[in-house]
């Protein structure tokens, strides 16, 4: 009993203990490293977690990861990353200026890829000297597609048909939008595959990317469907059935869109191509067709026959 009382006193005031005693609690299993932020200042919690997790690996390259001087641990450990042991500083370059719709932008690029910023700046210079880019942006909404399993294909067909009734869509819209002030349901499209039913939900999510927001709304829809007769025997296999489609190249997203769709246009004069890009319009056109169209076709690329634009998108 005395040991229990003493242990509870210690656990209630961990911040007053020296580092050695906190590490002893971690190694004994009495304290879990993921709960350190509940007891300690964020920077101290990160330092002790790093010492604890890497204690058996003194030669690991991870010991060289810096942890001091990062000003946002209080935000990062609450909503951005779990089990934080430090941060990785990445060089930041500035590409541009880039002229878009009559406005100039400088583009910050965090990268470890040599010559990337210089290459981007050369492209920006060619674009700006050609009068700039004209662009349009359309928002189509974020998606999530829960996966349900019904007892038989007839029941699955009836469940899919249930969504064709506007009054039913009104009901699930009310349920979905009750979970957020920002989420607005745009459409619900069922897709049957045998006894499996994929429900592709499209919603506007305000200024947020919105995956957590729309997932929460889909959970509310599923709860409601459990009260509907045709769905009473369904099994929820997954909140996401890969029919969204999230983080994967797909014809679905290319045709029906997901998130934002941006269209850009620029006409590069031959003299700019020659002076800035050091080539000719004919050579550039031939390369574009041979590489981006023929090469991409042979590779079976989905939707976009482009060059290495993802090097830029991934680093932004």
Give an overview of the whole structure.
The structure is a single chain. With 316 residues, the chain is α+β, with helices and mostly antiparallel strands. It contains 12 helices and 8 strands. A hairpin with a 2-residue loop joins strand 1 and strand 2.
Counting DSSP E segments of at least 2 residues, the number of strands comes to 8
User: What's the overall geometry?
Assistant: flat
**End-to-end separation:** 57 Å
Largest sheet: 6 strands, antiparallel
The amount of helix comes to: 40-55%
H/E topology pattern: HHHHEEHEEHHEEHEHEHHH
Total number of helices: 12
Strand proportion, as a percent range, falls in 15-25%
- Radius of gyration computed on alpha carbons: 27 Å
Overall residue-averaged pLDDT value: 90
What's the SSE blueprint?
Blueprint: H1 2-12, H2 19-28, H3 42-53, H4 73-79, E1 92-100, E2 103-110, H5 116-129, E3 134-144, E4 147-149, H6 153-162, H7 166-177, E5 184-193, E6 196-204, H8 211-225, E7 235-238, H9 251-256, E8 259-265, H10 270-275, H11 281-299, H12 310-315
Antiparallel strand pairs: 1-2, 3-6, 3-8, 4-6, 4-7, 5-6
Helix pairs in contact: 7-8
Notable features of this structure?
8 strands, 12 helices, 316 residues, two-stranded antiparallel ribbon, 19% strand, alpha+beta
């Amino acid at each position: 009993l005395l040991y229990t009382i003493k242990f509870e006193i210690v656990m209630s005031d961990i911040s007053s203990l020296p580092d050695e005693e906190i590490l002893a609690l971690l190694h004994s299993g009495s304290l879990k490293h993921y709960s350190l932020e509940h007891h300690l200042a964020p920077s101290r919690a990160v330092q002790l977690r790093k010492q604890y997790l890497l204690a058996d690996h003194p030669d690991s390259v991870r010991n060289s990861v810096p942890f001091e001087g990062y000003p946002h641990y209080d935000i990062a450990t609450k909503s951005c990353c779990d089990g934080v042991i430090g941060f990785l500083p990445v060089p930041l370059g500035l590409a541009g200026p880039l002229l878009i719709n009559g406005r100039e932008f400088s583009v910050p690029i965090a990268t470890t890829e040599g010559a990337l910023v210089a290459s981007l700046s050369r492209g920006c210079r060619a674009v700006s000297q050609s009068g700039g880019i004209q662009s349009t942006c359309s928002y189509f909404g974020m998606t999530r597609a829960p996966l349900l399993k019904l007892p038989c294909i007839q029941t699955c067909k009836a469940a899919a048909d249930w969504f064709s009734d506007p009054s039913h869509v009104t009901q699930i819209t009310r349920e979905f939008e009750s979970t957020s002030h920002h989420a607005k349901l745009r459409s619900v499209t069922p897709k049957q595959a045998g006894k499996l039913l994929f429900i592709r939900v499209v919603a506007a999510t305000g200024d947020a990317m919105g995956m957590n927001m729309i997932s929460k709304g889909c959970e509310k829809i599923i709860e409601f469907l459990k009260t509907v007769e045709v769905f009473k025997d369904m099994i929820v296999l997954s909140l996401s059935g890969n029919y969204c489609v999230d983080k994967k190249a797909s014809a679905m997203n290319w045709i029906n869109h997901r998130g934002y769709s941006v269209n850009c246009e620029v006409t590069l004069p031959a003299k700019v191509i020659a002076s800035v890009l050091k080539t000719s319009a004919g050579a550039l056109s031939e390369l574009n067709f041979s590489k981006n169209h023929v090469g991409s076709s042979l590779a079976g690329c989905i939707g976009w026959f482009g060059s290495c634009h993802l090097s830029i998108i991934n680093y932004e």
